[in-house]
């Protein structure tokens, strides 16, 4: 992939288009030459401190990039920041919950590569491009090679859940990486196989991708463990751990439904009829 | 250049550090010296913690329970030895003249030791073990009949169930450890991998155990489940026929179930292995416990031998489920059985590519399937945050 050309002049900020789901139209003939290659999806609630920089870095990932900001329940001016940028904005007046924004953004995305990031952490474009590059070279799901702090005797419940799910799905090589964590990139082929709704429950999407035989790999390491103080405070009072553990169980339930009561694993030479 | 920190290995014996008060940085000294003092204090604390851990391991380890004169150095050991000698003498005097059989001596020793501990408050396991062995030494010295014996003050009957192949080389050593314990029954389920193999003679296996011959090769879990159905004792301990575990470690399982627990698990967490050094199967154990709202069990599981169950637990879980260890573990949690930690025995883990690994992974899938059929798909970890209706109908 050739690096993007250096810009000499700043383009004027175009008026942001507010795209609501009812107004989404397929690209017309005049727009087809401008079809983006990368769609960066950024769900946001209240992240006015970092959103502008996140959007700016997202546009630098590829020359043909569209940025889709899914603002839900925003009260601190994040929606206005998004609208004043060149990003497409999906606006919802109420919080939709964790990760639902990913599914909604993916539905309107037009790129071949869908890159999912969070709005509370500014990741430089140089660290996002390897994910796009991995998908361009054939990976269907390029994951952040970050497994959390594991050099301990007791780890966080979410770190455990991710490791256990990968082991159960026969992919211990993925360690603790998962579509739960950002950034990660997904190919258009993967989206057509697993759909966009499953992205709202990331462990389920992760399980579907592995079950469908898609090429799921670890890309590069981006340390997302160093969270900003506001997020730490938020998660200490309203921990997402029970939710994410339940998501992993939902994924296991789906997988058992698609295989059998043993997840497709062999029972060996166990003669169960001998014992009642 | 940054100084390398010296790691304190718990395997090496540590010299006791003379207790010095923690140094305080003098007022007015530079930040550098304050930092040096702080580093020295934290090193002293680390050393003290490592010493404490090593002392605890020494108390609990079976090696400390070995017969040796130097162990009789403590007053408690000497007093137990004397008590054993006295009881042995009185028992011998009450017996008729002539040689006594080891079986009678064992029975009498166990009975007297249990009476001595009747009503006594629960002691630290290491102390109880050492005092029991000292008592047994004294008793045997008095009756002039010596054999390896670990007396355990059990109130209820206990049995051991082991399943092995005919040609298993470790089986004699496993049975030798079981013979040290106060067991009413030993049930040995034998199967053979080679078709048409001749079963070995009874005297080459065990004199008094109940021996079951299966006609063909059998999964060890099936063999143990069958053996459990034949046991009549209140406590049943399940032991691997392929790996020898010291009798002193096994004794702890018996005591745990006798003391009120329904399930005594192999305490794998005592070895404090880091998460990234554990195998994938351990992650499955730990996640199963966490999803069933028992994070306190960490990665201990009925999938790891040895373990012990009471008759009540056996009836609750069912023999058929015992053939699938991870599922039995899930049933035990859902039926609200009482768990306790038994001893700590190393468990060999199959590599990822092997059939046993895949079978264990399938067992965990089956465990979740069973749990979800009772508690629902998310096992009571509800999703109260997401607005899924906005996504419309979605195909899965």
Main-sheet strand order of chain B equals 3-2-1-4-6-5-7
Share in helix of chain A = 25-40%
Assembly state: heterodimer
Q: How much is the average pLDDT of chain A?
A: 87
Largest interface: chains, residues each: A-B, 62 and 60 residues
The radius of gyration over CA of chain B amounts to 26 Å
- Major beta sheet of chain B, specifics? 7 strands, mixed
Form type of chain A: globular
Which percent range describes the beta-strand content of chain B? 5-15%
Q: Write the element-wise H/E pattern of chain A from the N-terminal end onward.
A: EHEHEHEHEHEHHEHH
Class by SSE composition of chain B: alpha/beta
Beta-strand segment tally of chain A: 7
General description of the model:
- The complex is a heterodimer of chains A (276) and B (396).
- The relative contact order of chain A is 0.13.
- In chain A, helix 5 runs parallel beside helix 9 and helix 7 packs parallel to helix 9.
- Chain A has a seven-stranded mixed β-sheet, with helices on both faces.
- In chain A, strand 1, helix 1 and strand 2 form a beta-alpha-beta unit.
- Chain A has nine helices and seven strands, in the order E-H-E-H-E-H-E-H-E-H-E-H-H-E-H-H.
- Chain A is α/β, with parallel strands linked by helices and 276 residues long.
- Chain A is 33% helix and 12% strand.
- Chain A is globular, with a radius of gyration of 20 Å.
- The longest helix of chain A is centred in the last third of the chain and has 18 residues.
- In chain B, helix 12 packs parallel to helix 13.
- Chain B has 396 residues and is an alpha/beta fold.
- Helix content of chain B is 44%, strand content 9%.
- Chain B has a seven-stranded mixed β-sheet with strand order 3-2-1-4-6-5-7, sandwiched between helices.
- In chain B, strand 2, helix 6 and strand 3 form a beta-alpha-beta unit.
- The interface between A and B is large, with 62 and 60 residues.
């Amino acid at each position: 992939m050739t690096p993007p050309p250096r810009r000499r002049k700043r383009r004027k900020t175009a008026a942001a288009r507010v795209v609501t789901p009812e107004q989404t139209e397929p690209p017309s003939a005049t727009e087809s030459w401008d079809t983006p290659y990368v769609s960066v999806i950024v769900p946001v609630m209240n992240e006015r401190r970092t959103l502008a920089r996140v959007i700016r870095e997202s546009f630098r990932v590829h020359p043909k990039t569209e940025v889709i900001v899914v603002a839900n329940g925003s009260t601190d001016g994040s929606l206005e920041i998004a609208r004043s940028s060149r990003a497409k904005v999906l606006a919802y007046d109420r919080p939709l919950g964790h990760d639902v924004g990913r599914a909604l953004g993916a539905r309107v995305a037009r790129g071949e590569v869908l890159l999912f990031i969070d709005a509370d952490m500014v990741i430089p474009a140089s660290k996002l491009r390897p994910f796009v590059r991995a998908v361009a070279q054939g990976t269907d799901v390029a994951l952040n090679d970050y497994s959390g702090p594991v050099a301990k005797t007791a780890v966080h419940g979410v770190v455990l859940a991710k490791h256990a799910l990968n082991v159960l799905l026969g992919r211990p090589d993925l360690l603790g990486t998962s579509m739960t964590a950002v950034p990660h990139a997904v190919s258009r082929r993967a989206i057509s196989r697993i759909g966009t709704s499953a992205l709202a429950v990331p462990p389920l999407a992760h399980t579907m991708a592995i079950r469908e035989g898609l090429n799921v790999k670890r890309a590069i390491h981006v340390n997302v463990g160093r969270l900003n103080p506001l997020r730490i405070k938020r998660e200490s009072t309203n921990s997402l751990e029970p939710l994410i553990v339940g998501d992993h169980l939902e994924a296991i339930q789906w997988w058992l439904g698609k295989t059998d009561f043993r997840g497709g694993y062999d029972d060996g030479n166990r003669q169960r009829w001998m014992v009642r | 250049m940054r100084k390398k920190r010296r790691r304190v290995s718990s395997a090496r014996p540590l010299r006791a550090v003379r207790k010095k008060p923690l140094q305080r940085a003098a007022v007015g000294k530079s930040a550098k010296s304050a930092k040096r003092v702080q580093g020295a204090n934290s090193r002293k604390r680390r050393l003290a913690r490592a010493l404490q851990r090593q002392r605890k391991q020494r108390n609990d380890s079976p090696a400390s329970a070995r017969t040796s004169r130097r162990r009789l150095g403590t007053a408690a050991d000497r007093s137990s030895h004397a008590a054993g000698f006295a009881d042995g003498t009185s028992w011998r005097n009450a017996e008729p003249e002539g040689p006594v059989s080891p079986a009678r001596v064992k029975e009498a020793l166990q009975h007297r030791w249990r009476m001595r501990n009747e009503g006594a408050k629960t002691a630290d396991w290491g102390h109880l073990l050492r005092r029991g062995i000292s008592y047994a030494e004294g008793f045997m010295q008095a009756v002039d009949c010596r054999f390896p014996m670990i007396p355990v003050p059990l109130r209820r009957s206990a049995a051991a169930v082991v399943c092995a192949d005919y040609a298993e080389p470790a089986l004699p050593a496993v049975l030798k450890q079981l013979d040290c314990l106060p067991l009413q029954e030993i049930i040995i389920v034998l199967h053979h991998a080679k078709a048409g193999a001749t079963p070995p003679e009874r005297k080459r296996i065990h004199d008094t155990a109940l021996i079951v011959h299966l006609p063909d090769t059998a999964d060890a879990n099936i063999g143990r489940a069958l053996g459990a159905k034949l046991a009549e004792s209140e406590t049943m301990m399940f032991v691997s026929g392929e790996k020898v575990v010291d009798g002193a470690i096994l004794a702890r399982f018996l005591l745990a179930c006798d003391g009120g627990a329904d399930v005594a698990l192999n305490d794998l967490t005592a070895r404090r292995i880091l998460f990234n050094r554990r195998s994938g199967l351990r992650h499955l154990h730990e996640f199963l416990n966490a999803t069933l709202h028992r994070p306190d069990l960490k990665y201990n599981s009925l999938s790891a031998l040895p373990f012990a169950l009471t008759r009540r637990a056996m009836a609750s879980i069912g023999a058929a489920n015992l053939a699938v260890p991870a599922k039995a573990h899930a049933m035990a949690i859902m039926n609200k059985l009482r768990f306790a930690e038994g001893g700590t025995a190393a468990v060999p883990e199959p590599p990822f590519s092997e059939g046993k690994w895949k079978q264990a992974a399938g067992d965990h899938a089956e465990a979740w399937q069973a749990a979800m059929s009772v508690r629902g798909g998310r096992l009571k970890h509800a999703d109260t945050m997401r607005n899924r209706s906005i996504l419309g109908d979605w195909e899965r």
